[in-house]
Amino acid sequence: MIHEFVRHTRVLEIVGDMIRVRATGVPLGDLAVVENWDGTTSTARVVGLDNDIVSLQVFAGGKGLSTDAQVRFLNHGFQVTYSDNILGRIFGGSGEPIDGGPDLSAEPRVEVAGPTVNPMMRVLASRLIETEVPVIDLFNCLVESQKIPIFSEAGEPYNQLLARIGFQADADIVVFGGMGLIFDDFHFFKTAFEEHGVFHRTVMFVNQASDPIVERLLVPDMALAVAEHFAVEQHKRVLVLLTDMTSYADAMKEIGVAQERIPAIRGYMGDLYTQLAQRYEKACDFDGAGSVTILSVTTMPGGDVTHPVPDNTGYITEGQFYLHDGFIDPFGSLSRLKQHVVGKVTREDHSQIMNTMIRFYASASEAERKQAMAFELTDFDQKLIRYGRLFKTRFMDISASMPLIEALDLCWETLAECFEPEELLMKQELIEKYFPRRGEPSTEEKTA
Questions:
Q1: Any idea what the CATH number is for the domain that residue 192 is in?
Q2: Which distant-in-sequence residues (6+ apart) come within 8 Å of 429 by Cβ?
Q3: What's the confidence (pLDDT) of residue 6?
């Protein structure tokens, strides 16, 4: 057993931000304090064990360290502050506040990266999280306790979409985890949460691009540990926002290279799937308590969906939102849990209207291709083209915002603007109940 007062003075090797010492009885993930010859100290984390050779990742980097440095193990893994006082606060990748607010050193701390939840304590997902983003609420509902990524690529407004869902979603607490963020993105999220009045129920963990890379690996674990405690102990409905999981995977790759591990596909380590799954499986609806829902961003380098990170993510998560050209594509998007809420906790016409709208949009896309190739168009093709333009503007644009009931009503109005009731091929009782009669004010007119 390693005791706190035992110091190891033989640093065998310093490779970049990694140091190696000889020690026994040290668990993987344990923390240590590295005391340099000049009196400076830094925190390190055990990231590799090879018999009695312990590899540690130094948070502040290996620059300036000497082989004469002393290493003191702390006998516990990484811990994060947890209490009601962390709401409205911003923490760095080391778990310390970076917002200049009151000191939190006396607050209780909890271990991060614990085991996933016992399946016997999980409840079947059955509650809708309304985001007020029409293309999500209508066609690929976000369900409480779901784990789902936003697949996108560099240059797309995925952070704007993530922030919009964060301040519009029906959740008690929002926990944000940013990995490798540039300052502009960090400032954008902070400002967005403040301006929309949700910052008081938000916790932010941020690793910026200039921060130590090992802290990037701690951000999801801290965010999920805090979310889990809010859900279990205070019965809160917690929404966890993570961006960007590809940056997280790249950090794992870089540390793996420093550990001289043998890489797998495209330089990523062979345990990429396991590492991602351990985080995503924290999503849970707890029996007799609250829930944790995970919405993440996974960027696809070059738009390649077969890249190892989105490819492995797709096997773990319960669908994806596919964002490209500034729109959420209803064809590339999927929510595997939407059947638990559509028509059950939402309005009776939701399932029919969802299928009809997508069917017509697919036909509209085909009509637009015919038009582009100069084929002769029928009157119905002209209707479809008009419908496709309205659909894209009213529902696919990520800036569109409205409650689900209004969105359903707008669907009926959009259909009425373009088609006759007999062209819808829907249940007659639903048409009689919801199809707008001529002369009735539209949803937009009622809102105005």
A1: 3.40.50.12240
A2: none
A3: 55
